[in-house]
Every structure is written in C-alpha cells, then in structure tokens.
Amino acid sequence: MFHLLWLVPAIPFAGAALLMIFGPRMAHRTAAWIGCCSIGISAVISMLIAWQFLHQPPAGGSYTQHLWTWMSVANFHLGISFYLDALSLIFMLVVTFVSFFIHVYSSEYMRGDEGFSRFFAYMNLFVASMLVLLLGSNLLLLYLGWEGVGVCSYLLIGFWYTDPKNGLAAQKAFITTRVGDTAMAVGLYLLFRQLGTLNIQSLMQAAQHQWPHGSVYATAAGLLLLGGACGKSAQLPLQTWLPDAMAGPTPTSALIHAATMVTAGVYLIARTHVLYSLAPTAQLAVAVVGAATLIAAGFAALVQDDIKRILAYSTVSQIGYMFLGLGVGAWTAAIFHFMTHAFFKALLFLASGMVITSMHHEQNIFKMGGLRKELPLAYWAFVIGGCSLAGLPLVTAGFYSKGLILWGALSSPVGSATLWFFGVIGVLMTSLYTFRLIFITFHGPCHHKPSQKTGWLMGVPVIVLMTLSVVGGFVELPSYLGNHPWFTNFLQSALPATAEGHAPLTELGAEGIVVLAFFLGLGAAWFFFLQRRELSESMAGSGLGRALHRWWYTDWGMDWLYDRLFVRPVGWFSRTNKKDAVDLIYTGTAAVTRSGWSSLRLTETGRVRWYATALVVGTVIFVLIVALL
Amino acid sequence: MILVWLIVIPLATGLIAGLVARKNALLCRWLSLFATVAGFLISVDLWVRYYPHISLLTQEQWIAQINVPWISGFGIRFHLAMDGMSLLLVTLTFLLGIVSVMISWREIHDGVGFFHFNLLWVLAGIVGVFLAMDLFLFYFAWELMLIPMYFLIAIWGHERRVYASVKFFLFTQLSGLLMLVAILALYFAHHAATGVYTFEYDALMHTPLAPGTEMLIMLGFFVAFAVKLPMFPFHTWLPDAHTEAPTAGSVILAGLLLKTGAYGLIRFVLPLFPAAAHRFAPIATALAVAGILYGAVLAYGQTDVKRLVAYTSVSHLGFVLLGIFIGTPLAIAGAFITMIAHGISTGSMFMICGMVQERTHTRDMDRLGGLWETIPRLSGSAMFFMLASVGLPGIGDFVGEFLVLLGTYQVSHMLAALATIGVLCSTFYGLKFIARGFHGPNRNQWKLADLSAREILLMGAMIVVALWLGLYPQPVLNTFAPTGQRVDQAFNGPTMAKLQGGVKMVPASVAGPAEFAVSAPMLSQTPRGPYRQDRAASPAGAPAVALALTHTGSAGGKR
Hints:
The structure holds two protein chains of two kinds.
Chain A: H1 7-22, H2 28-55, E1 62-73, E2 76-85, H3 86-109, H4 116-135, H5 139-157, H6 164-195, H7 200-210, H8 216-232, H9 241-244, H10 250-259, H11 264-271, H12 273-278, H13 280-302, H14 307-327, H15 331-358, H16 376-390, H17 397-411, H18 417-442, H19 456-471, H20 486-491, H21 507-531, H22 533-541, H23 543-553, H24 558-576, H25 583-601, H26 608-628
Antiparallel strand pairs in A: 1-2
Chain B: H1 2-20, H2 25-50, E1 64-71, E2 76-82, H3 84-103, H4 112-131, H5 135-156, H6 161-194, H7 201-205, H8 211-228, H9 237-244, H10 247-272, H11 274-301, H12 305-326, H13 329-360, H14 371-374, H15 376-389, H16 396-411, H17 413-437, H18 453-471, H19 474-499, H20 520-523, H21 533-536
Antiparallel strand pairs in B: 1-2
Helix pairs in contact in B: 1-2, 1-4, 2-3, 2-4, 3-4, 3-10, 3-13, 4-5, 4-10, 5-6, 6-8, 6-9, 8-10, 8-11, 9-10, 9-12, 10-12, 10-13, 10-19, 11-12, 11-17, 12-13, 12-16, 12-17, 13-15, 13-16, 13-18, 13-19, 15-17, 15-18, 16-17, 16-18
C-alpha cells in the first residue's frame, strides 16, 4: 500500500489541473464531482496507508518514496520524495478527511456562484500543496508545499475578486506570511551551509551529531524557522493577516484558515523538533510566542462582533496553545490539539457558514440572536464545537488535548508555572468569548428571521465533525482517567515523549484549576451576555471600556503600527521614485550635452564680421598665452 | 557545419521573407515561423543526441564546432563552438523566436517584410553571440543583434519609441565600444606576451596580464555586459526600451538580449580574468543586490504594466549577476537556470501585456482592472506568470533564485539575507500587477475576447516549460554542468575551488579518454553505456541517485 503514497497529493493535483483547464466550460455538477472525488479518493488511499501502517509498520517507523531527482548541483542534492512517519500520517489523515467533508459542504455552499469550478480548482490545489508540505522529505519540498498553500490561501481569500477589500485582505495575507517565509528561507541556507543537506531526517541526525546542546547554529536555525512558522500560523507578531483572511468564502476559512494550513507552522516545528531540543533559547521562544499569542488573541476575540472574526481570533489563540505545547516539549500534546482543533474549528466555521447563509450574509452577531429554534443543527454544532473549543470537561475532545498541553507546560522541565498560568487564563478567555458568541447569536431575542434551510450536503459534514469533536479526544486518556495514551504511543516513533519534571501540583489538581477556569468563563459569559446584558454594554460604554474595546478590537493596534512602519514608507518611496532617480544621471548628461550644443549653436550666426572678430581675439589670446609662458 | 546552419537559416530566411512580404505577407510570416521552428528542432535534436554523453565530456570539448581562418592577417578566425550552455541558450533563442513570430501574427500590419527581416536577423545575431569563440567574431555578432533591434523598437514601437530606441542604441553602443577597446587591448597584450596575434578564446584565456591591466580590460568587458544585463545603475535604458518595443521586441529583449550580457559574464569575464573578477566581485555582488531590491521596489511603483514587468527584469537579472560573481558551482548553476527561466516567464509576461494592450489599447493600470471577469484564461495565465515572477517553488524561476541564494549564503550571509528580502519585495509588485490589472471591479465594462487558439498554444507551451524547469530542472542542470565546471575551474582554480567547498564534478569514474571527439555527427554513432543522468552532476563515486535521503550529506560534499 505504501507505494500508493504519491497518489495522495497527485490526485488532488490532477483534479486541480482538470478544473483549471476545463473548468470555465464545465457544468457545476461535474466540477463538484471532480473536486470532491479527488479528495475522497485521496482520503481513502490515506486510510489504506494508515491501516497498513498500523498493522505492518515499515522498518524504522518510516517509509520513503523517491520519485525523481529535483536538483543536483555540486554538493547539493535534492529529490522529489515523500516521507511518511507517524507524524506525517496523522496530519495526512486529518487533512484529507477534513478536506473531504469541507469539499462536500462547499458543493452546496457555493452553489450558483459564478466561480464555482474555480473555487474547487483552488481548493484541490490547496489540498495537494498541503499534502506535499506534509509529506516532503526535504525542507525544500516542504517549502514548495508551504508556498503553494500560501498561494492558494491568497487565491481563496481574494476569491470574490471584484471587491477590492477582499483583494487587499488576500494581499495582506500573502505578504505577511511571506515575511515569515523570508526568515525561513534564510534558515534553510543556514542549515545547508552548516550541515550540508536539506533532507529533514539527515539534517536532524547531523544536527544531533555535530552540534552541541545550546549550539548557536541550532538556536539561529530554530529562530529562523520559527519566523516562518509564526507567519504561516499567524502567531505574534505576524498574526494580523488571519482575521482579515475571513474575507474568503466560509469553507475556505474552515479548511485553510482554521483546520489545516495555519497549523503548518506547528508541523514544521514538530518536524524539526531535534533543533529545538538542541536550542533551549529557541524552544523557549516558541513557548513564549505561543503563550503571548493565546492571551492577546483571546482578548481580541472577546470584543469582535463579526462571527467569523471571533472564530479567527480563537484560531490564532488555539494555535498559540499548540506553540506553547511545542515550546515546552509536549510534542505529542501539540499534535493532539492540532487534530482536535481541526475537528471542532472546522465544525464551528461550517456551522457559522450555515448561519451566515441563512442570514443573507449578515456576519454581525449583534444583528442575530435567538437563532436556537430556527437553526437547530447550527445551534447544536456551535454548542458542541464551542464546548470542545473551550474545553468542557470529560466529554469533549478539546478538553483532553488542551489539558495535555497545559499539564506539559506545568510539568515538563522546560515548562514553568508562569507559562501554565498564561494557559489557564487563556482557558478562561476562551470559555468567555466562545459562550459570548453562542449566547448572543443563538439566545436572547430574535432580530431577523433566517430564511432558507440548508440541505443535507451541508448537514452531513457538520454532523460528522460534531461526532469527531466529541469522540476525537478519547484516543488519549490522561492518567487520572485510566491512563490510555494511545495517541502518544502511536507518535512515539516520530516524536519524543514529553519529559516529566517536577510539578508543584498533581495532574488532577492542575486539571481541577483548568476546569474551574472554564466554568468561570462560562458563568461570566452567561451572566454578562445572557442574564444582564446591559451590564456588559455599560462596561463597554465607559471611558476605559471604550478605549480597551477599541484597542483590542483593532488587535492591539498592530495593523496601525505596521501600516506606519512598513506599508506607507515603501509605498511612498516607490511612488515618489516612480520615474527612477538613477535615470537623472543619464537624462542629466543628455541635457548638459544639449544645452552645450544650443549655446554653442548661438555662435554659428553666418556673419563674417563675428567670425573674423572671434578669429582675431582667439589668436591674440593664444599668442599672449604662449608669450607669457 | 550544423552551427553555421543555425546562423545562416535565420539570416537567409530573413532576406527572403523580407522580399516576399510585398507580394504575400502571410507567406513571409510562415517562412519566418518555418525558420525559427527549424532552428529550434535542430537545437533540440542536438540536445537529445548530446544529452546521454554529457558525463563523458572532458574539459576542452565542445559538442560541435567549426574553426576556419577568416582574416588571417589579423589572426581572425571564423570559430563557432557549442557547449552545454550555448546549446541551451540557442534552444531558448529559437523557442522565443517562434513565440515572437507567432505573437506578431496579428499585431504587426505595417512593414511586415522589414519587421520579419529584423526579427530574424536579431535572432541570428543572438545565436552568433552564443556561439562565437573568436572575440572579433563575437563583437561582430554583438553589433549584428543591436541594429535590427534598434529598428524593431524605432519603427514598430509605441508612443515614445524614438526616445527609447535612441536611448537603447546609445547605451549598448557606447558600452559595446568599451568592449571593443578591451578586446583589442587583450589582443595586443597577448601578442606582447606570446608574439601571436589571435582573437581565439582558448588562447586568450591564458594570457599573462599585469593585475592593473587585467582589471582595466576586465572592466571593459564587464561594462558592456553589465549594461546589457542590465546592472544597477546602468539599467535605465531597459524600462524605456521594453515598454516602447512591440511585443515581439519586448519578448526578445527580456528573454534573450539580456541573457547575452549574462552569457558574456560567464563565458568571458570569469574565465579570462579570474583574478580581476575575484577582486571586483564584492562590488559586483553589492550592485547586484542593490539591483534586486531597487528593481523590485520600483516595479511596485509603476502604473504602466509593461514598465512594471521591465523593472522586474532588473530585479531578476540581479540574481543572475549575484550568482555569477559569487562564482561557486551552485551559484553559477542557479544563475544559469534563472537566465533560462526568466526568459520563459518574463517573455510570457510581455506577451500577456501585449495581448492586454492589443485588446484594451492601454497599458495603464489605472484604466485596467476587473479583466478576470471577461478574459479568465488570459488572466489565469497572468496569475501563473506573476507567481513565477514572485518565485513560487515549482516554477523555474524559483529553482534558479534559490540556488543562487543558497550559493550566496556560503559566501556572505548579509548579501543572501538582503537578496531574500528582494524575493519578498517581488511579492509587492506581483500582487499589485494582478490586483490592479485583473482583479477588482470591471469599472470600464471591458468586454474582450479571451485567448484565441494560437494564444492558448503559446501560453500553454510556456506554462509547461516553466513548470518543467521548476519541477525537473535536472536535464538543464546536467547539460550546463560541464560548462559550469569549466568556468569554476578557470575562475576559482583548483585551490580556490577546494577552499570554497565546491566538489569538483570531474566524472573520473566514467570519463572516456580525451580523444572521445564530440562532434554532432559522431555523437549518434557512439552510444556509450546506460543513461546515467543522475550521476553527471554528482561527485565521482557518489551514489547514483545522489539524494540525501539515505546519507547525511553526500560523500565528499560535507563541510
């Protein structure tokens, strides 16, 4: 089965190519079939491969498929080859499955859109690039997928291109992530220069052998790769693009800007975890970035009024958790959270898509309300997804994965009580903004009657993801619940176990505090946004409240800052220098020549008297000079 | 003889096509197309036959050559020779030649005969530049490609064509004169040292020169090539010439003429004057990086689509210059791939601009916008080549730029980092190009015809080539490898090369004896061994598929 691995990205690629070439003339029905089937087949093949991986694991826990030589010059050799181990397998399964359901959902959601086939072409291309990113055996192939998903994200954010606002959001996303990519590219050069290869597994081995613990090269490489990860995964300080990315169609937000692409940074760091183990500074930086982001985005999410922007900030915040997990060496916990997050966040976005469709593309939650009765499926999807996101104890997937990260933050030797504390505050915030969203949207008075009902093509994916958001967590039960770490055990061949250090609390005790934070947030949301809504409004209306509201609403004003620091200066320079100042040298030379010509031309009068006078004067001067010398 | 045909076919067809056009313009077009296709097929055929043997080439060998006395009194010979580098560039020349003829099919109506005459003669001149191994002949070809190009811009160009063509002519002519002086200086210096008057490339390569003289002569060559490239700050002729030229002219300018500058640097400046080039390298690389950044930022500021694309060339060719003067095998190979890939992608960009202008009669991005709605296929192609231009992996330009940057980092971290920021800046203009030209609302209610069958054929072919270069550039890299190796050896010398970590690509294990004469007809008769493409560029004795999958760093390549 393993030899079918190349088909997993190849089929979506083929689907994308078909849709691009023949799409404009294709019936929407055909386009939908091609789009969904290609991902479906890919998902089935992934499943077959996973099945074999479980039953007949390849030697050494990994399988490499070499397709062809990509480039080979001097001492630089790269192949187009895929590498499958437990880590890439988990990502591959999640990506293909979630993608499949989102494609099915889109076939109804996008019905009647002018760019129907174009949408599926981009989505297929995205899945293919994402799979290349995951399966690439060397960092450059990973980078190919990395840039590929970036482009697809750009194309899909700006999908409705006639509105320049969407175009701007798309450009912002592409440029911001590319800022990170620049750092990442430099990281690649550094790794190649120091270790002589870009093959990930060889790199990791070489790094372990050649670099001492705390090596400056490992630190530099780790930080540079972290730069790339921050861009793609929307972490501080490059997180500003993700909320704007919500300009794209909702299925896109679900797939790219929640479930899969934005977690590519997590994958990159997990894939190169050896570097971070060698470089404590870089690893600490990962944890700090994660902790800071999860708090900052939590506050920003609390004051948004656009349903999708709230979810976007919550995505930023949840990826912050994953970074925190990676940063404290809780590798498998971060991957676990990636998986559960993919389920519940995709669910939340798909459900919000249902709400938005029913509300005639209204996205402001304050213009909704009381939708519980009208849209029961969306409501329950939000309840289950929201509970999973906030971490309702015992029955939701998010509870287990987030709990594991937080326990790692507290107990691992790299972790600390401070990081843990930040994480717990994050739980409180998450619970607060999630239930604020649910209470305002679905409870209270009904402002507008929703119109159309959604069909089963949108319903089925939502139900499937609802199920996964609940049961997805049971693959890893913590010690106080029977201790069945199946997920961690499975990843053991690819990622090291979380080191246990000294913790000031027992796991159960720490978990108790987390649960407390969750209920505190839930209670506060209930009190302020359902029970006594006027209280929250008066708080937001006060002077300080308004200032904070504005500050958080604009994501801590970072867009403003970047606009002043980078966007305007570059724009100003290129506009001012549109005519290219360097050309002045040449046009200047030409002008001087021309003015010399025109002034000398004045002497050419055709009057013999003038010529004779000039001749005499010239001769006199010449004779004088000669005589004087 | 095959090399002579490569030049004679366009020259002769140009004459005939020019003459028949009065009677039958269509015949003239078909004749030109036939000539370019013939040249293309000949060069592809050469490549296919030569390709299995590249690993057998030793240092001195050419794929094919012709060397006869021309003006014996001055030691001038008619010496044409082709190695992997010139083979690929000649192939590119004819490919873009086909494109230029086809793209002019509906665009050029006046003076069809003289247009095609000029077009084919430019191509002949370019082929001559890529093949001439006698410096006098080289200069002759260098001038040959200048004059017809001047006419192409001055007669069939757009609004400011006279200004642009004169500017183009002055820049190239003046810098060309410097090269002529340098060639003569080298000629006399060689005579002074050896007593032999010769313009022969191989002979002049070993001319002993005083450091000061070497630097001056090197600069003479360098300026000519740097203007053509164009290097910052000599680039200002380019935006004007590119913008004002007719589409075919822009394609040839961007795709080919700029490459002659890069070719000259690789072929002449590095091997003939290694010491001077080494000393000059810090300045050249710094100017290269300045050009990368400056070109990208200026491209962002433009509102004329062709001007925007023209400035992107300044930026991209900066990578070529950077790679060449970094001078490691990795960087030079990267520079070469960039040359080819840029020819394809920027050539296509100019075609797209031409098609847009043909339909809308404007190049001003303030008047365009929303084109996607009415011409999705053309806009999709524009998107593709925009992505190529911003360095999307999987498309040819990325491979070249990445190799250059990777090579640069080995020498200078700062330059590599700055040049990588240049890649970031390319995103600015790329996205602007699409956003202002093709996205947005269709304010002007454009209703245009999408790509015709002829245009789909052109665009499709270019996209396929660009993807091929991006995903499987190895054949090109392999074909270039012997040249790269020779340049590396001449430029870096055995000791320098070792210092810089370039593993010599001496295919010792497979190299045949030196008498293995590689001339085109013989190639077909000498099938040797199995096809070992992967071994060609790998260090001797390294595993056949020298991937790093199975080993940490290649056998000898680790530092």
